[in-house]
TrEMBL record:
Keyword Coiled coil: yes
The protein's name in its UniProt record: Calponin-homology (CH) domain-containing protein
Alphabetical list of PROSITE patterns matching this protein: CH (PS50021)
Species: Cuerna arida
A Pfam short name: CH_2
Lineage per the UniProt record: Eukaryota, Metazoa, Ecdysozoa, Arthropoda, Hexapoda
Keywords assigned by UniProt, alphabetized: Coiled coil
Coiled coil start-end: 149-204
Ligase recorded as keyword: no
Amino acid sequence: MAVYENVERLYAWIDEIPLSRCKKNLTRDFSDGVLMAELCKHLFPKLVDLHNYPSANSHTAKVVNWDTLNRKVFSKLHIRVTQELIQQIAACIPGALESVLLAVKEKAEAQQRKNGAVRSPDGYQRYRGEWGDNMVADSFSDIGILSEIKKLKSEVQLKNDTIAVLNQKVVHLESLIDMKDKRLKELMASVDRLQAQSKESQESFCTTTAGN
């Protein structure tokens, strides 16, 4: 049960960190090392140059990214990641990734406790450490608050999307009304012309009859 709770807390912690990809399946999403590089960049900015970690589809390219992380980042954080574990992560073996994520999380929290932190308006704590300015949620109660904020933002976005759709419908209806008004004016103009022509014909007929 404790292991399950730790993993759930780990996932909640990751959800609050902005990454470039939507996180649907962590084992697969993190397999090429790109999101791990972004995560470490977020927590330890001075350790990571994101251009060193291109997106990868092949197993070999994924391993290269993880080897780079292992050499340039994990070694400085004193996190031991074996080649066997890297192979498992790149192959999307369940449970392999979580061990590294937990180690990174523990390092970030340890540095937070060591260096202190100041709460920022976005609900995170910012602190200056050995590897640059960092930002992590200071407790899981904060994560709950941030999750609620995220939920509210989603609801607002949904309402904004609905309003946008309704506005498009209004524009479409206004366009139809304009077209109908234009058509009505054309028909009225045609009626006026026909009436004028009819009047001219009647006057011409009357003139001809009177002459006879």
